[in-house]
């Protein structure tokens, strides 16, 4: 180990990876053990158990790097900061403030997310900031916002699910992505009430009481069919619809035409199974509808989620004790990351950047003129797509994101990065994106810094520092502070201490939908982990939202009319199969961290393509051979894995791998018009054999 423990006793903290933010302890020797936090109740997955390995990774960056003569070479912090600040100033002077862009991440702490948004808007004066959470949960956020008036992924504690008799999981595979979560589904499973919607027979679908496997990209039609069955079979919760919602009559006009037999023709899911799902969900005493990336990462992802929310509203679930609708956010701070201002269209407190009152409030906290705040900028993919073009940014600062692997149409995005005048990356290791940079800053990771995270149930928790960072490594906050001072900002405007930043974040969030003003490090250090909103120091937090009222001015939830559109890129003779992408148990997101952990990487070291044995045979492929998968945007190579449960028209690839094995070389960057989410979950491909001789 390169760094020193700050305490000989184990430190209570949380996992560095996903949105479940499992409670764990880490010892002075970087040994990790689970602790009894509500979301994991003593469980960890393989990623959590091995997370201590990240702290001593020999591939850790410990010095800034500056590209000279084509090579990244070690440099001092002062030299790297001076160089970046000087280049930013000259690019702004030549091309205007929007020539500089910032790209953040859903794994950054709340403090980093907040300071990054503030840095972009007042130190750089640019509107060009967005983050990789746009690729993660933005469709669910948009749909939740329009249905309920506020978006908190799960507006109830995870532990409430343990009382559920029925749970519908739409496009979510927690048995693989967050295994400790599945303990909360035991009762529903035992009661025969676990309904899983997924085109693949995933480990979660294996546990289901009823697995509905729609054709890829047709989930919306399936939701319409089930909703039709709910109404036609007499399960509509009329009293709830009348007293707590608006808009049912408008949506029924389209749902009326989606009887289950029609939905069967589009989705392939038997009408009888749709009716069975409707019956399971409607007759259980306590029912939840939960969505994940499978429903959200589509060109009509916001509408897909709205279709599931419409179903939940028709059943009377949201805001009813013991029932509800929620989104299973993926990234570690997927919820908090979208609340504090690193999103193109938002200011801290989950406020809209085009709302004059929000601008005035935040500008007041920042001590600037509201008129000086930029307006909304480009969304994540649009920003990446514009890099290096005549009208787009020519400098990019990347924090906590590895877009070379994780962005859709990754080959095109890589080309755009190569056209920049200046690429600056802050990361723990030389990720694939950092390897392209002009300047790389080595920054701290989870157990080397204090910081708050907001987990998938809107619970704000403290991830504590347990080790001093290795010599040469600084926090992202110190990096932003150092850059801001070189750009002429006073030191107090960009503090480097997490607790000081959090104190300002509280003030900036006050009165907004995501109100953190009553949360303090003092409360967090005392062991509290409260759900927002927390509008006062003595407020206990809000574990369950919407019990009395929704956040729209009339207090009612809104049905939202939606139409089935199907995948943006249908199969054709040239590209006769569809590809979908997702995660495996052993890896997290772009794999930049988990590919460093031998115990994980040894289990799944390479990409693979999962397909039906008959599909493999059709293309002359057999188990273990290398296949080439080609879409209209690029091609990738992967080892064939034959799986009889796969649909004949579908292949699956994990998106954690680099180089020629990037699944995102294939994916379609067509965007949802509301959420600007790319269609990661379905694109047309063809298969061929890689001649390895
Ligand atoms: Fe828990 Fe997620 Fe970490 Fe696994 S990756 S231990 S499920 S927080």
Automatic annotation (TrEMBL):
It comes from Amycolatopsis marina. PANTHER family: NADH-QUINONE OXIDOREDUCTASE SUBUNIT G, RESPIRATORY NITRATE REDUCTASE. One of its GO terms (molecular function) is molybdopterin cofactor binding. One of its GO terms (biological process) is respiratory electron transport chain. SUPFAM superfamilies: ADC-like (SSF50692), Formate dehydrogenase/DMSO reductase, domains 1-3 (SSF53706). Keywords: 4Fe-4S, Iron, Iron-sulfur, Metal-binding. This is Assimilatory nitrate reductase catalytic subunit. It comes from the Bacteria. The keyword Cell membrane does not apply. Gene3D superfamilies: 2.40.40.20, 3.40.50.740, ADC-like domains, Dimethylsulfoxide Reductase, domain 2. InterPro entries: Asp_de-COase-like_dom_sf, MoPterin_dinucl-bd_dom, Mopterin_OxRdtase, Mopterin_OxRdtase_4Fe-4S_dom, Prok_molybdopt-oxidoreductase. Residues 8-57 form the 4Fe-4S Mo/W bis-MGD-type domain. One of its GO terms (cellular component) is membrane.
